[in-house]
C-alpha cells in the first residue's frame, strides 16, 4: 500500500472508527458486544465516581447504546475479563493477561500501587490474610472492620484493604467478581487456574504486541502517543522498526511534520478514510475516562479540544464543573457538560453546558446534541432533563426549545 495522506478530519474519522464511535449502531446490543467493544479498545478504564453512571459503563454505552450494566460484571465473573493496571486500573480481555503478567512479577516498579515497606513491615499480617483467603474463600474489603482509628477518607485505607491492593498489584490475588461494584478478591490460582509462568512472553514480545494493539485501537498513531495507552515504561519500541518488519504501515496527516502509523488490519478502513468516504454521524456523550479523551495531548492534537477533568481541582478553581462529559457530535468534540443523575427523582441535571469556541449553531446541531443528552438521560433512568447554565446563552435557549418540543410530542 502506498503511503496514505490524511486530512485532519479524515484522521479523526479513522480514529473514531477504530474506537467504535464513527456511526450509530444499527442493532440492539448483545452481551457479546460488550466483550467485543473492550477488545476493540484494548482496555476499559475503571473509575468509581458516579454522579452519572460509573465510567466503564458510560464508555460502553457511548459505543453500544442502551444495554444492561450487569453484563460487564458477568463477563468478569465468567473469566472473559480480568482487572489490572493497564492504562490505569482497567478491565482487560483475559487473553491479554500474558502481556501484563510481567508487571505483577516486578511490583516494586509499579510506584504508589505497591509498597515494598508495607510488605516488609506487615509481613505477618499479609501472610495471615492470604491464609484466611486460602482457607475461607474470597473476601471484600468491607468484610474487615476498621480497627486503626482512622476516619476512612480517600487513601486512608484500612490495613486489610491496603494489603489486598498490594497483593493484587503483585498478582497473588485477582478480582474474582464484583458485587455492587465492590471488588471481591481471591487467590490468582483459583481465578485463573490454567495459567503458568512458562507461558510468559519475553519483554521484547510484550512491548511489540502492546505497541501493535495500541496502534490498532487508535486507528492511526503518532509515535509519541504509543506509550501512554498501556502506560509502557522505557525502553520503548521504535514504530519505524515495526514498519521495516511489515507489522505497521506508515502514513501522513496534512500539517503534521512526523509520520503516523496504521495497523495492517485497518488498511482498507484507512484507505476509505484517506479518500474521504468515512463519514462520522454519531453524536453521543463521552466519559472523562474514555480512550478518546484520556490522553489530553492526543485529544488536543486530533480534535483541537483542550480537556481536563476538574473533579480533583478545588471548587473555586474549576472552570467547567466537577465531572464534565465531552460531547461528540459527528466527528468533532463540540463541548462539555457538567451533569448529575438524580435517579430517585428521575431527573438528569445539566448543571453547566459549554460549547467550544467557533461552533456554528443550527437547528440540526441542536437536535443532535439534544438527542444525545436525552438518550444518555434515559439510559440513566432519568426521563426528565433539567438545563442549568449554558454557554453561549443562545444555545441554551435553543436547547430548551428543542427539549420542550420533544417532551410535548412524546406526551400522551
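-> sequence recovered:
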Amino acid at each position: 500500500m502506498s503511503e496514505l495522506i490524511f486530512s485532519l478530519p479524515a484522521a479523526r474519522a479513522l480514529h473514531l472508527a477504530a474506537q467504535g464511535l464513527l456511526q450509530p449502531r444499527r442493532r440492539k446490543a448483545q452481551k457479546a458486544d460488550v466483550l467485543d467493544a473492550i477488545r476493540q479498545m484494548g482496555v476499559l478504564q475503571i473509575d468509581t465516581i458516579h454522579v452519572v453512571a460509573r465510567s466503564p459503563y458510560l464508555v460502553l454505552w457511548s459505543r453500544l447504546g442502551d444495554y444492561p450494566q450487569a453484563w460487564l460484571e458477568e463477563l468478569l465473573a465468567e473469566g472473559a475479563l480480568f482487572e489490572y493496571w493497564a492504562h490505569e486500573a482497567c478491565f482487560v480481555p483475559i487473553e491479554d493477561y500474558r502481556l501484563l503478567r510481567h508487571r505483577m512479577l516486578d511490583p516494586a516498579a509499579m510506584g504508589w500501587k505497591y509498597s515494598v515497606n508495607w510488605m516488609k513491615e506487615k509481613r505477618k499480617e499479609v501472610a495471615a490474610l492470604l491464609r484466611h483467603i486460602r482457607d475461607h474463600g474470597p473476601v471484600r474489603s468491607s468484610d474487615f472492620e476498621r480497627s486503626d482509628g482512622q476516619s476512612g477518607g480517600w487513601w486512608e485505607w484500612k490495613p486489610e484493604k491496603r494489603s489486598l491492593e498490594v497483593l493484587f498489584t503483585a498478582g497473588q490475588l485477582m478480582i474474582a467478581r464484583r458485587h455492587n461494584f465492590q471488588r471481591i478478591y481471591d487467590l490468582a490460582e483459583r481465578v485463573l487456574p490454567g495459567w503458568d509462568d512458562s507461558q510468559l512472553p519475553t519483554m521484547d514480545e510484550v512491548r511489540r504486541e502492546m505497541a501493535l494493539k495500541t496502534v490498532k485501537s487508535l486507528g492511526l498513531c503518532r509515535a509519541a502517543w504509543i506509550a501512554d495507552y498501556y502506560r509502557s515504561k522505557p525502553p520503548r519500541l521504535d514504530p519505524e522498526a515495526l514498519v521495516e518488519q511489515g507489522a505497521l504501515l506508515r502514513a501522513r496527516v496534512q500539517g503534521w511534520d512526523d509520520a503516523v502509523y496504521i495497523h495492517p488490519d485497518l488498511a482498507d478502513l484507512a484507505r476509505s478514510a484517506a479518500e474521504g468516504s468515512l463519514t462520522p454521524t454519531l453524536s453521543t456523550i463521552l466519559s472523562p475516562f474514555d480512550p478518546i479523551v484520556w490522553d489530553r495531548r492526543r485529544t488536543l492534537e486530533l480534535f483541537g479540544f483542550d480537556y481536563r477533568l476538574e473533579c480533583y481541582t478545588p471548587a473555586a478553581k474549576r472552570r467547567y464543573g466537577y465531572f464534565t462529559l465531552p460531547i461528540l457530535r459527528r466527528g468533532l468534540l463540540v463541548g462539555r457538560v457538567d451533569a448529575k443523575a438524580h435517579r430517585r427523582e428521575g431527573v438528569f441535571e445539566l448543571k453547566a453546558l459549554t460549547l467550544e469556541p467557533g461552533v456554528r449553531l443550527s437547528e440540526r446541531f441542536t437536535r443532535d446534541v439534544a438527542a444525545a443528552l436525552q438518550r444518555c438521560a434515559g439510559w440513566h433512568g432519568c426521563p426528565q432533563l433539567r438545563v442549568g447554565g449554558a454557554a453561549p446563552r443562545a444555545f441554551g435557549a435553543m436547547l430548551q426549545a428543542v427539549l420542550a418540543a420533544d417532551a410535548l410530542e412524546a406526551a400522551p
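The radius of gyration is 23 Å.
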